[in-house]
Amino acid sequence: MRFHLMEVTTLYIVSGCLAGLRCRYDGKDSADERVINLVREGRAVPVCPEQFGGLPTPRPSCEIVDGRVLNADGMDVSDNFLRGAEEAFKLVEMLGAEKAILKSRSPSCGISKIYDGTFSGNLVDGDGVFAAMLKKAGIEVENE
Fold first, then answer.
1. What is the pLDDT at residue 9?
2. Which residues share a beta bridge with 45?
3. Phi and psi for 93 in degrees, rounded to 5?
4. Which residues of the chain have pLDDT under 70?
5. Residues 132/114, Cβ–Cβ less than 8 Å
6. What are the beta bridge partners of residue 12?
7. CA dist., res. 17 & res. 6, Å (int)
8. Which tens digits make up the pLDDT trace of 94-103?
9. What is the pLDDT of residues 18-47, one digit of tens each?
10. CA 18 to each of CA 117, 122, 137: distance values in angstroms, whole numbers, following the listed order
11. How many CA atoms lie less than 13 Å away from 9 in the CB half-sphere?
12. Which of 42, 71, 79, 90 would give a disulfide with 60, using CB separation of 3.0 to 4.6 Å?
């Protein structure tokens, strides 16, 4: 089987969990048929910045606290999140992706709203690490 991307007008980077990959912190997916269809059509490439950063699946849930990413056990995993975002961004650059569809509320992929760092389910204004990197580079991002 050969792998090649079809010629498309817009290529998306998408959160792997939305493409049906079991890469969420709890080992599950957040499959979204629209995203799965984009991948099947060769119009999207799935990534999981948290796995790219070396974090296992499953893993303790993580939230952003005062600019650092902490897991539910109190361990600082900021370096993993930054490294994973940088690696995922390399794919964005290599592929020339112009848009991204990312998992809402995620400390990596959340756009505009993320959990507040108290692990209580409260949301605050903010972006995940990867989402912020994409926005800064001018990539159009949206939640599922």
1. 74
2. 13
3. -65, -45
4. 1-8
5. no
6. 44, 99
7. 22
8. 999 999 999 9
9. 999 999 999 999 999 999 999 999 999 999
10. 23, 22, 22
11. 0
12. 71
